[in-house]
Every structure is written in C-alpha cells, then in structure tokens.
Design goal:
The protein is of the alpha/beta class. Among the domains are: 79 residues, 2-Layer Sandwich (Gyrase A, domain 2); 87 residues, no CATH class; 60 residues; 110 residues, Isoleucyl-tRNA Synthetase, Domain 1, CATH 1.10.730.10. 54% of the residues lie in helices and 11% in strands. Helix 1 crosses helix 3. It is globular. It binds arginine (ARG). Arginine binds next to strand 10.
C-alpha cells in the first residue's frame, strides 16, 4: 500500500512540477489541517510570480480525492484536511497490511560500523551508545528491505598489546583466561599498565613483544589470539544481555586489515598523495587545519614503521566499497572522533576509493553524563562499567514490579524486569537527538511515567489488556472506522503516520524521530481512551474502538522492536 503521506506527497509533487519541473514541496503532519505543504513561496519566487496566485494554480491542478479542504495560509502554505472516509480507508489498508503500510524501499547495501569496543578493555558508556544506536539503525534498515552488513571494528591491534601479552605470560595462561572470562577486563588492563609504568624490565619486554607481534611471530600471535577470543566471548555476553544482534561473525577488528596496509600506503604514494613529515608518512587533505591555521596530517605510517588507527580505517573503507560494494557506509562513532573520520573520508575520496555514488556518513553521538552533568564516572572517578549499569536497571525494574504487585512467578518477573531494564536504557539513549549529551538518571529512566521506555511498554501492555478482555467478540476486518469523535480521528492520524516517522529516522540516521512519533502516538491513545469508552460502547462503535486499540498496539510493538525494545503483553 502507499502511505497517506506518500500519496499526498506524490500528488503535490505532480502539481508543483507541472508549474516548474523538479519543484518539490515539503510536506509534514500539522495542527493546521492534517498536513501542511510548504514550498509555494520558493516556487513563486523562481517563477517571478505572486505566491497566492501560484498557490491557487497548484490547488486547481491537485488531485483532491479524499481531501475535504485545502486552505491557502499565509503567503505560501497549503493546509490539507482529509475526509474521514479517506482516513478510514487508509486504516483499513493498514489493518490488512503485515508491514503496517510501510512500503519496501529500493534495496541498498548498508554497512554499519558500530559498537567497536577494545580488546582486553571494559566496554564503557560510549560503546553502549554506539551499540544501541547502531543496532536500532540496523533494525530499521532491515525492516524497510535493505541489506545490512554489521561491522564490529574492535580495537585489537596496536602497541598496548605488547604489555597485555607480557602480563598474560606473567599471570600464566590459565589464570589470565580465568580473570578475563569473568569479565574483569579492566583490572587486567590496569595491572598491565601499572607494571609497564613502574617496571622498566617489563616495559622493555613489552616493547620487544610489540615487534614480535607485528612481525607475525607464531607464539606471540597465539597469545594475542587468546586475548581477542576471551574478549569477544565477553562482548557477546554483553550483547546478549542487551538483546543486540551482533555476533562474533560481525567482528572484523583493526587487525583484519593488516595485510592490506602496505597496499594502502603504496597506492597513496603512487597517487602522489604521501608526504613525509617528521619521519612519518602523511596525507594532508584540503580544509583541515590546526588552531594556528597549519595543515593537519592524517598519519598513515608512523616514524617507528608501524601503521596506525587511520591506516586500518582507510583499508577498511577501501574494502567496504571496493569488495563489499556497500551503497551506504554508516560510522556510529562518538563525536570526539569527528575530525579523524572526516579526514579518513577526505583521503579516501582523494585516492578515488570513495566515489560520490557511495553515501558515507559519520553518525556521531554525544556523551553520557552523570546526574551532576559531568561525564559519567563512579565515585572513585573511573569510567562506569556498562554491565553494572544494566544490572542496576534490572534491580530497579524488579523492585518496581514488586511494588506494583504484578502477579508473576519469580522467573517470569526476572524476564520482565530484564525487558524493562533494556527498554529503560535504550530509550534514554535513543530518544534524544543523538548529537546531544544526555544525563544517565536510572531512577527517571526506569520510571513508568514520563517519556521513558517502560512508559511506552506499559501503554502497549494496557492496550493488550483491553483486547484480552474483549476476547474474540469482534473483528478487525469488519471495523467501520467512522471516526466520529475528535480523539478517534486524532488517533487515526497518528496511526497512519508511522511510515514518514521511520523514513525521516532513516534519512537522518536519527532514531529519536521514531521515538518522538511513538511517544506522540501513546499520548494520542491516552486521550482517545479517556474520551471514548471501548468495551462498553455500542456494538459497531465497540468494534471500531477495539480496532483502534489493536492497530495502536501493533504500531507501538513494531516501532519499539525497531528500536530493539521488547513490547511484553502484560506488565
Ligand atoms: N575502538 C574505537 C574506540 O573504542 C572505536 C572504533 C570506531 N570505528 C572505526 N572504524 N574507527 O574508540
């Protein structure tokens, strides 16, 4: 089916481009009429004509089937009000449509680089953001029919591995594996670091170990592999706990590109892009300067002959485009790495590895703050362990359920608490514009009131409970959708608007667009439920209102699932 929005957009585009080819209005759901189109001003200007006259001509050309009223407002807005039969017909189509009216998109291959924690290091809240945002984007892209290639670009290479391997040897393999497998990655890393700083002999061994690792010494590689494998097992446990679909197969870490690095450097040299600067080999992409206005280098090969983070990113990008043929590259990485990524993209373009036909984007996000509005840290001042946060959310959700006297056996309550905890954490992360920082306030996040994940889950569970009470005494297909009450009509307008919410979330890589939509829908439902009795309504009306409950529940559950949030039937 064609969504209401797409249908109107198509008709408007037709009328606009009849006056000037290619002219396209911007349409949005609105308080003025049901939808408002903007763009008459720009069109009139380009034609050198009077806006109201142009608006009149557009209206005259517009297919007005299902439109009750068009109002020309101000100098150039068209406010469209739909007829109730048309809106009812749209609802009937959605009710019969498995995908709630979302038309499949022309498939693209979308590579999403997300999560990317570092081996033998605890995942911190920055990785939480990348994981949660990346997973939501992956789900949304898949839902509209794109092919998603997840890439977990874990940090599994570089100089710290010298000291990590030496520390592993000191501990003995078995002990080392034991401490890593309980997820105590931070103590492992810190112990290695402390020895490195305090013990010159250890530091010396570590440096030699880096050389052995880089030259491919088999025993060193074996020890390194232990660190990688144990970490990946640990990361997978965290993904399970979060209900994130990343698997070990999606891990393609920095080290995976080692064999390609020399080629990257050679080809940059052959293209005449490589410059020696302070003993390192660099590319200077145009437009990047430091505070003094001097050009900034992207270092591809360091003075010690090692390759760095930038080189593996270049190799990865080249492979993602050249071999994997990705149409879209999304890098879900924190805002502080913006300059690094922009420089990598710029160098790839200079080298011809990133053609204009490929859409490449840094999906940046802000920081997670504590309730004191400073970077989230524990009292001891160290960065907060992600699993600890989730555990605390589970405990609070469990308490909330006990307090609410939800009648459940222990096992079901634990499962529900886990679903609520995930919802709390994911919603808090996804519901603000991602570039902004957000405050990690568990108490607020887990609350069943306000703009929270559990509130949305609760709204859905309430709808399911109404439907359970109605049993099988009604039929969705037979619902009349007369939409006689204002609150019913408002809810209907909300229900038909899922496709445009999803479309804008995808176009901007902004899951919060979907969150805003879902919260608005839940509020429309509440207003409807307050104004319109459902189970006690006369027969025809009762069917219609139950149908509105059913479509609301389906829409909320689908929307939440696209954010990686479960919608339990009872809570
Ligand atoms: N491992 C890096 C970190 O923890 C993030 C990697 C992001 N992805 C990339 N292709 N550079 O900061």
């Amino acid at each position: 089916m064609t969504s209401t929005y797409a249908l109107l957009q198509e008709r408007l585009s037709g009328a606009f481009s009849a006056l000037s080819p290619g002219a396209d209005p911007v349409l949005r759901a609105s308080e003025h009429g049901d939808y408002q189109a903007n763009g008459v001003m720009a069109l009139a200007k380009s034609l050198g004509r009077n806006p109201r006259e142009v608006a009149g001509e557009i209206v005259a050309r517009l297919d007005l089937e299902g439109v009750a009223e068009v109002e020309v407002a101000g100098p150039g807005f068209l406010n469209l009000t739909l007829t109730t039969p048309f809106l009812g017909a749209q609802l009937r189509e959605i009710a019969a449509n498995e995908r709630l009216g979302i038309a499949p998109a022309a498939p693209r291959r979308v590579l999403i680089d997300y999560s990317a924690p570092n081996v033998a290091k605890e995942m911190h809240v920055g990785h939480l953001r990348s994981t949660v945002i990346g997973d939501a984007l992956a789900r949304m892209h898949r839902f509209v029919g794109h092919e998603v290639i997840p890439r977990n670009h874990v940090g599994d290479w570089g100089t710290p591995f010298g000291m990590l391997i030496e520390h592993l040897i000191d501990l003995g393999e078995e002990n080392a594996v034991a401490s890593l497998s309980i997820g105590d990655l931070d103590s492992f890393y810190k112990a290695a670091r402390t020895k490195f700083d305090a013990d010159e002999a250890f530091a010396e061994r570590s440096r030699a170990r880096v050389v052995a690792l880089q030259s491919g010494d088999p025993e060193t590689r074996r020890l390194w592999q232990i660190l990688v494998d144990e970490s990946v097992v640990y990361f997978s446990q965290v993904y399970d706990l979060l209900d994130v679909s990343l698997t070990p197969e999606d891990v393609v870490g920095e080290s995976a590109y080692n064999a390609l690095l020399a080629g990257v450097v050679d080809d940059l040299a052959a293209a005449g892009l490589l410059v020696e600067s302070g003993g390192a080999w660099c590319v200077f992409p145009a437009g990047f300067t430091n505070r003094e206005g001097e050009p900034l280098p992207l270092i591809v090969k360091k003075s010690d002959d090692g390759y760095g983070y930038a080189a593996s990113d270049l190799a990865a990008l080249r492979q993602r485009v050249g071999e994997l043929h990705a149409d879209d590259l999304l890098y879900v990485v924190g805002a502080p790495q913006a300059q690094h990524l922009e420089m990598v993209f710029a160098v790839a373009r200079m080298a011809g590895w990133l053609p204009a036909s490929v859409h490449c984007e840094h999906v940046a996000f802000g920081s997670v703050l504590g309730t004191d509005r400073k970077m989230l840290r524990t009292r001891a001042g160290v960065s907060v362990k992600l699993v600890g946060l989730l555990d605390e959310a589970i405990t609070r959700a469990n308490e909330a359920l006990v307090e609410r006297h939800v009648a459940l056996d222990d096992e079901s309550r634990d499962e529900l608490a886990l679903q609520i905890a995930r919802a709390a954490i994911k919603w808090a992360d996804l519901s603000t514009e991602r570039q902004r920082d957000y405050v990690f306030d568990l108490e607020r996040m887990v609350s069943f009131e306000g703009e929270t994940g559990p509130y949305l889950q609760y709204a859905h569970a309430r709808q399911r409970s109404i439907l359970r009470r109605a049993q099988d005494t009604w039929s969705l297909a037979a619902a009349p959708f007369a939409l006689a009450e204002r609150a019913e009509r408002d809810l209907a307008l909300g229900l038909v608007a899922l496709p445009e919410a999803l479309e804008s979330a995808l176009a901007l890589s902004q899951p919060h667009k979907l969150c805003t939509y879902l919260f608005d829908l839940a509020q429309r439902f509440t207003a409807f439920y307050e104004a319109c009795p459902v189970l006690t309504a006369p027969e025809g009306t009762r069917d219609e209102r139950l149908a509105l409950c059913e479509l609301s529940a389906r829409t909320l559950a689908t929307g939440l699932s696209l954010l990686g949030i479960d919608a339990p039937d009872r809570m």
